[in-house]
Design brief:
The complex is a heterodimer of chains A (185) and B (224).
Chain A lengths: L1 H14 L3 H23 L2 H18 L9 H22 L12 H5 L3 H6 L1 H10 L4 H12 L4 H8 L3 H14 L1 H9 L1
Chain B lengths: L5 H11 L5 H13 L1 H19 L23 H19 L3 E5 L2 E5 L5 H107 L1
Antiparallel strand pairs in B: 1-2
The chains are: A mainly alpha (185), B mainly alpha (224).
InterPro entries (chain A): RNA_pol_sigma-70-like, RNA_pol_sigma-70_dom, RNA_pol_sigma70_r2, RNA_pol_sigma70_r4_t2, RNA_pol_sigma_r2, RNA_pol_sigma_r3/r4-like, WH-like_DNA-bd_sf
Protein name (chain A): Sigma-70 family RNA polymerase sigma factor
Pfam families (chain A): Sigma70_r2, Sigma70_r4_2
């Protein structure tokens, strides 16, 4: 509740031109959005591009945010829309290989070996998610990683609850082999 | 019994979160026991749940958070406003007190009021005279040019007029001659017509006279 009120105050100040309020708001949610984007795009440069697109769209739509729900939910709705557009555009790009999970970009660009080891689980999870079609992956993401209710997911994606449940069930069926292999490892 | 997976699809997550009523919970448990697919999905859901917990938040690389977003407030530094105000005031005061700066051989000179008005006046007069001379020359040249132009225009006009008058006279004469000729033709036609009718009359008269003579002769014969 405190956070909610604070979000609204930050939004109000950002709208009146306060850069520091906007930066505070972005810093509060950028980790969440970046990691979400990473799980949806599987590579850090795409995740950065998508995250920036999401925050740009959030800023542009900020005057339309009426504060009638949690800011996070509203923001993730924009993120879901932007993700769909982004993946569709990327799918049209002939140079992109859809199932390529970036193996060691973090290692090679940013961190020493031990830090790479720390994110090895993340690569494994991304490889698993990469086997799912985009719409099933979005439902898995919103349900298991963002912990939204089915009603909230339905509101964010504009898809009926029954369809979301079916997509989730199909995703679980599809993941069967993946998780078994992971358990063995 | 064949399972359509609907029950588990609908309630699996609530089952994991233990949010189901005992009755539905029992139904789901039965479905999980009897259907291999549903059982497998349950296992995957648990594994996915664990995977989500295993995810380590990756730090966001440094990026420009305001590049396309918040426009900074257009605020000018305070001293700039004050400086502008002070400069304006100084300029106004300098105008009011007629401050004059002049540089001569002895150095730099600042003067208030109209001490050097005479100097200025003579300077203005000189300039004015120069200007007058220039103007007079210019006007004279302009007059000469104008009179030349006018003379040429007059000559052209006279030539044009003569040409025109001659043409008009020729036209008038033509018209007159044509009119007289047509009148003459008309008169001639009328005379011919009258002549013809006179001739006809004469012939008729002659015939009549002949008849009269004949009848007179005839009467004379009878009398004898």
């Amino acid at each position: 509740m405190f956070n909610l009120r604070k979000d609204e105050k930050l939004i109000e100040k950002a709208l009146s031109g306060s850069q520091s309020s906007w930066i505070t708001l972005v810093k509060r949610y950028e980790g969440l959005v970046y990691n979400y984007c990473l799980r949806m795009t599987f590579n850090s440069s795409d995740a950065m591009d998508l995250m920036q697109e999401v925050f740009l769209a959030v800023y542009r739509n900020l005057p339309a945010y009426r504060g009638d729900g949690k800011f996070k939910g509203w923001m993730m709705r924009i993120a879901a829309n932007k993700t769909t557009d982004f993946l569709r555009a990327r799918g049209r790009n002939p140079l992109h290989r859809a199932d390529d999970v970036e193996e060691d970009s973090f290692h090679s660009h940013h961190s020493p070996e031990n830090e790479y080891e720390a994110f090895a689980d993340n690569r494994r999870i991304m490889a698993m998610l990469a086997t799912l079609p985009e719409e099933q992956r979005l439902v898995v993401e919103l349900k298991f990683f963002q912990h939204f209710t089915f009603e909230e997911i339905s509101h964010q994606t504009g898809v009926a609850i029954s369809t979301i449940k079916t997509r989730l069930y199909s995703a679980l069926q599809k993941l069967k082999g993946q998780l078994e292999i992971q358990n063995v490892v | 019994m064949l399972c359509d997976h609907q029950l588990v699809s609908d309630h699996l997550l609530d089952y994991i979160d233990e949010k189901l009523s005992p009755a539905v919970r029992k139904q789901v448990e039965q479905a999980l026991d009897n259907c291999e697919t549903c059982q497998s999905c349950y296992q995957q859901a648990i594994a996915l749940h664990q995977a989500a917990h295993q995810w380590k938040q990756e730090p966001v690389p440094e990026w420009h958070r305001t590049e396309y977003a918040v426009r900074p407030r257009q605020r000018q530094p305070g001293w700039l406003n004050w400086a502008a105000m002070a400069t304006s005031t100084l300029a106004i005061l300098m105008v009011i007190f007629q401050v004059q700066f002049s540089v001569n051989d002895s150095g730099f000179n600042i003067a208030f009021g109209n001490q050097s008005n005479q100097q200025v006046n003579t300077l203005i007069e000189e300039k004015l005279n120069e200007y007058k001379k220039q103007q007079a020359l210019l006007i004279e040249a302009r007059f000469v040019a104008q009179s030349d132009k006018q003379a040429t225009a007059n000559q052209l006009l006279v030539a044009n007029l003569l040409e025109k008058t001659r043409e008009e006279r020729r036209d008038d004469l033509n018209f007159l001659v044509t009119g007289i000729q047509s009148q003459r033709f008309e008169d001639q036609r009328k005379v011919e017509k009258r002549l013809a009718s006179l001739t006809d009359n004469q012939i008729e008269n002659n015939q009549y006279i002949n008849q009269l003579i004949q009848s007179a002769n005839f009467n004379k014969g009878d009398d004898q």
